[in-house]
Amino acid sequence: MKNLYLKLKNDNLSKMILSALIIFFILNMIVSPAKFIAQGLNGISAWAFNVLPSVLPFMFFTKALSSLGQMEKLTRPFQRVTKTLFNTPPISFYTFFMAILSGYPVGSKMIADLYMQGKITKDEAFRMSAFCSTSGPMFIIGAVGVSMFKSSIIGYILFISHVLSAFLNGLIYRKLGCKDKKDRQNKKDKSHIEKIANQNENDNISIKSCSTKQNNDNFQVENVVDKQGENDNISTEIDTQNENMKFQTNKENKTTKAPDISEIVLSSTLAILSVGCIITIFFIIIECLSPIFNLFPENISVFLEGAIEITKGCLSLSVLPNVKLAVVLASFVISFGGISTLLQSLTMLQQVKMPVKLFAIQKFTHALLSALISTILVLIFM
To answer: How far apart are CA 165 and CA 363, in angstroms?
Structure first.
């Protein structure tokens, strides 16, 4: 009873703090609407010119490839590698590869899709999120390295640190969910997978039922033929009906295997729009909090901006006079992703019911490892 009271008290306190923050943001926007409209446009611009062109195509094509059911065949050679290193199915290698190429939040979207298709369990989804939630080379090398820091070497240092730390992060969480509540969770996941498999086989079952019914009708027709002596005409009719049934079966099978383009387009569009919405909102939030950030030294101030929104944070870090420190801090910010990116990824992982604390801890350890590796690389190459 005492624990329940404390939990309710903490929930009420969290709601009060969150409500106060929201009221603070609204009041700021009322006082200076022009300034926040400009920041909203900056957020939309950052999404439209940096995120949309690189992420949307990957979302569409990975969803299309997943719907074809060919990913298991493509990733089968890596079965032992992924099982040994990450304790995940071979399809996680493909997810990791595509996440590295495309960036946030494609990896999280693919994990959710695989779970909903019954190809991975919930525990496997949790383990995969430790190393499949990554940024991409277009953002790290191109946008941050070349455009912001004006150096391709810095871009490669950041990218190598990011990928290696993601790999190491996957090793850290390879035992996640393997001990506590394993049997109960596996039963739930098995039921989830069987449910999806049954849904996918509904059409085949219907076809088999129709085929059985047709065979029964054919048997009755044959009895009539034996009795009435009309073998030739009835045989021709049966052959025609059987051919029609085979054609219908093939047509249904093709329909089952073909990807639903309209569903893929709708899913990808809604996902990328939610990403744009979150980016725009956090540009406004940073502007609201900027008077508070300005109370801190410049290094800490721009780091706090990056902890909230990755794009704006990296842009601010790139103008710091201490370039080596800026690169290490940028490495941490990119791998952590900022609160904005965390919300983008958690939005994609809603169907998996990913715990917020677990995902935040995974991203924090990823960021620490990335900062450590980048420090070593900076000392060697800069």
So the answer is: 10
Cβ-contact 62, 322 below 8 angstroms: no
For residue 345, give both structure tokens: 């990824």
Alpha helices in 202-260 (DSSP H): 202-228, 231-257
Nearest to 204 by CA among 257, 155, 244: 257
Quickly list H helices, 103-151: 106-116, 122-128, 137
Residue with token string 């439209």: 48
Per-residue pLDDT tens over the stretch 290-306: 888 888 888 899 999 88
Average pLDDT for the chain: 79
CA distance 283 to 50: 14
How far CA 260 is from CA of 38, 151, 247, in Å, comes to 39, 43, 21
Task: Measure the CA–CA gap between 44 and 164, rounded to whole angstroms.
Answer: 31
- Which of 134, 141, 73, 77 shows the shortest CA–CA distance to 109? 134
Contact (CB, 8 A) for 115 and 127: no
Tokens describing residue 198: 């049954």
The tens digit of pLDDT for each residue in 241-255 reads 544 444 344 444 434
- 145, amino acid identity: G
Q: Which DSSP state fits 294?
A: T
* H-helix or E-strand spanning residue 160: helix 152-172
